[in-house]
Specification:
The protein has about 70 residues and is mainly alpha-helical. Helix content is about 60%, strand content about 0%. The longest helix is centred in the middle third of the chain and has 21 residues.
Length: about 70
């Protein structure tokens, strides 16, 4: 999909240098994918502490098995 964007050229060039990207398109595509991954990770924090796991064996029973 062809899209024209007015992007900070200096920022894209720095991203190309830091990320080792060979083109502006490659740099922008990588940045978009990273932003999506970051937001998914941040959203997953909403679920932190909401899952109840069954209790495992008591520590003393683990020592006896070894």
């Amino acid at each position: 999909m062809a899209t024209n964007l007015d992007i900070d050229t200096a920022a894209v060039e720095e991203l190309m240098r830091l990320g080792g990207h060979r083109s502006k398109r490659e740099a922008v595509d990588a940045a978009v994918r990273e932003a999506i991954a970051w937001r998914r990770q941040a959203k997953s924090l909403d679920y932190l502490g909401t899952v109840a796991f069954p209790a495992g064996p008591a520590p003393s029973s683990l020592d006896e098995q070894a």
